[in-house]
Amino acid sequence: MIAEIGLAALWLAAALAVLQMVSGALALRSAEGEANPLAIYARPAAVMQALLAGLAFAMLVWAFAVTDLSIKLVAANSHSMKPMIYKLTGTWGNHEGSMLLWVGVLALSGGLLALFERRLPERTMGATLAVQGFVALGFYAFLLLSSNPFERLPVPAIEGSGLNPLLQDIGLAFHPPTLYAGYVGLSVAFSLAMGALLTREVNPTFARVMRPWVLGAWVLLTFGITAGSYWAYYELGWGGWWFWDPVENASLMPWLAATALLHSVAVLAARDALRTWTIMLGVLAFSMSMLGTFLVRSGVLTSVHAFAVDPERGAFILVLLGLYIGGAFTIFALRAGAVAEGKRFSFSSREGALVFNNVMLSAILAIVLLGTLYPLLTEAFDVRVSVGPPYFNPASAMFAIPMFLVMAVGPLLRWKEDSPRRIRFEVLLLAAILIGVIGLVSFFGQFALLPLLGLGLAAALGVAAFLPLRGRKLTRVPVATWGMVLAHFGIAVSLFGMASEGAFTQERLAAVAPGGSDQVGDYTFTLQSVNPVAGPNWTAIEARIAVSRDGGTQVILTPQARNFWSPAQSTSESALLTRWDGQLYAVIGNQAADGRWQIRMWWKPFVTFIWYGGLLIALGGVLSIIGRVRVDMKRRKAVSLGDERRADPEALGTAPVPAE
Amino acid sequence: MKAKHQRLILIIAALIAIIGAGLIAAWTLRNQANYFYLPEQMAATPPAVGQAVRLGGMVQPGSLATEADGVTVNFMVTGNTEDAIPVRYSGILPDLFVEGSGVVAEGSLGANGVFMATNLLAKHDENYVPKELEGMGTAQAAKMAADTTVGLTQ
């Protein structure tokens, strides 16, 4: 019954998406103030759809929890012996389940929008919900027609075939849901942008409605990327934290677009400038989410994320991608001219700095996009290439460095027009820090250019992040401003971690006999023993390595080489020793013929700052949302109080006004 | 500045930056893209010394030898012909790396004709077949694809 309830809920949700689309479109067509009898269904349809999609997802989670082997998806991806937590997270550790999660989050955000958003004119809201319904419908069709998660097996399987061991990790519990929520949160920004464009309501009110959605999606993307990066770092056992893997790029590209969008929305809300640019970024950000979904879900890539290798599905998503992005850009091209130009500003103003960084972010996006698609393009001509750090690092740094420089001074400038001379003290201070740190570091050793620049920029940005607070009474600084300060400081912290890892990492690869010792950085490590161990669905060999720093207290590290038996696969479980100033990273390899074991050790100074920085950035975004929502609540309360006062005398004399 | 056509100027500036990014990308890609070679291709037209490329083929049976340090291995990679490329690698070998299995080695050709691998991509799971070995057409390629490799990154 579980599967049937889920499937029925999914079909009903699809039908409601059609209703939402039609009803929203009718609201758009009716003149302002005139109520179309069908237009009232858009909001309830969106809310109901969210409940039904949520129900369908809950049913699938239930099926995985009880390991219902008569469902094809469960039989193919789960196993009755798997620990409960991985049974649950396994729900989205496969193609169909993850698409259902995608659609579920899409419906949920549409429902929340319909339920709580009351500031926009009804026509704009109708258009927005119509677009949201249209997007949802495409993905319901994709799920129901080509990736049905509830498909039954003719004969129930005796035992499931298990989940890819790399995915049997707590990282899987957080990483995909947060990333998806971020991807899909951008769909609301997209729908709002299309709604505003169709009804020519691109103005600060619209920007204030859009901002929490963009901020929310951006916070989730930031968090998802940070979690994904740390997961890849410790789970893959390669010691790297970012591989420029196409799938990683697929999550980075929407983040870059969302970062640009969030700053441009801020300009639109505060200054009524950058109207069309904001709409364009709204379309672009969701296009990148869709492209990411296509890259990951279509099977054009071979990677741990590419569950489906079914050309039909790839074609389906490609058609959806073409339909939505092509349609959106067509409407944009037709309507953008009709959006009146916003307020003007001088180049040396805060808007000017934000525009510059928006363009730099777009350029980095273009670099990443081209690098990601290039191997797919050349493959069409039968040339096989792969594109890695030698391309991405220098090409993106070329635009990232000017961006960081402008980011340091941008928040110090005034809106509309400012004289660079006014902030010359700050500029000189930051330049001195930048040059001083680079000089100091290169005095002590030879380092590559990019890590060196990164260290200097990190120091300058770290100081610059707090300069906007100079001369202000700290208790009176708005919460949203603290959010900006924190997020910008997070960038500095993260950059410091990356540069430090790049410049100062020490590596030691050695074959060590049990009882033997070796050295990496300040650490001495001794291989005490190597023993077989067993887990619920794996066996492993585990090394006991005693490490001590400069002869201090010994700590035991236990890296493992695991063999899973369902499916048969092996993974390397690294062991980490975290100190405030870095991490020691240990991996065990094969046994050489003479009985020695291969041990690989890295000492990575301040590598953890990469992820601390990511968390700070996300936290800054959260503070910003809290600040904006609080201001908004206050304003709403004031407005409703005013309305009440006016309504009192009116209620005595006039007929009631129809709601909305 | 006179803000008469500010929108136009903004659009042009953005276009210049994006096109610039595109040109830089195209130029860097030409230089930095990592080409895939089969052993016979590498023997016929070797890449420049030090250029990052990938070499894919089979580990020749009987050629795998570990050096005294216990972590450096030397082996030969063969393809569809007699050509064999010597490969040298320091590091932890992929779990299912054995003689006769397929391998994709990332690295560059040294001046002495030895391919210095920085990374070996190895089989994790029978479901993952490297793109490079798909559709090569010969029976051997099919066999190679069947028990070969792929890492998590391409």
Order of helices and strands of chain A: HHHHHHHHHHHHEHHHHEEEEEEEEEEH
Largest β sheet strand count, sense and barrel closure of chain A: 6 strands, antiparallel
How does the overall form of chain B come out from the CA principal axes?
A: elongated
- Overall average pLDDT of chain A: 86
Radius of gyration of chain B, whole Å: 21 Å
Mean pLDDT, all residues of chain B: 73
Distance between the termini of chain B: 49 Å
The helix fraction of chain A, in percent, is 55-70%
Q: Which structural class best describes the helix and strand composition of chain A?
A: alpha+beta
Instruction: Please give the most extensive interface between any two protein chains, plus how many residues each contributes.
Output: A-B, 64 and 46 residues
| Strand residue content of chain A | 5-15%
Assembly type:
heterodimer
**Structural class label of chain B:** alpha+beta
Q: What count of helical segments of chain B does DSSP give?
A: 3
Large-scale geometry of chain A: globular
Instruction: Say how many strands of chain A there are.
Output: 11
Largest sheet strand order of chain B: 2-4-5-7-6
Poorly predicted segments of chain B: 124-154
Low-confidence stretches of chain A: 303-308
Features of the shown structure:
heterodimer; A: 660 residues; alpha+beta; six-stranded antiparallel beta sheet; four-stranded antiparallel beta sheet; 11 strands; 12% strand; globular; B: 154 residues; five-stranded mixed beta barrel; 3 helices; 7 strands; 27% helix; disordered C terminus
Architecture overview:
The complex is a heterodimer of chains A (660) and B (154). Chain A has 660 residues and is of the alpha+beta class. Chain A is 62% helix and 12% strand. In chain A, strands 3, 4, 5, 6, 7 and 8 form a six-stranded antiparallel β-sheet that branches. A four-stranded antiparallel β-sheet of chain A has the order 2-11-10-9. Chain A starts with a helix and ends in a 7-residue tail after the last helix. The model of chain A is unreliable at 303-308 (pLDDT under 50). In chain B, strands 2-4-5-7-6 form a five-stranded mixed beta barrel. Chain B has 154 residues and is α+β, with helices and mostly antiparallel strands. Chain B starts with 5 loop residues before the first helix and ends in an 8-residue tail after the last helix. Helices cover 27% and strands 27% of the residues of chain B. The model of chain B is unreliable at 124-154 (pLDDT under 50). Chain B has helices at residues 6-32, 39-44, 139-146, and strands at 34-37, 53-59, 65-66, 72-78, 84-90, 102-109, 115-121. The longest helix of chain B is centred in the first third of the chain and has 27 residues, at 6-32. Chains A and B meet through helix 12, strand 1, helix 13, strand 2 and strand 8 of A and helix 1 and strand 1 of B.
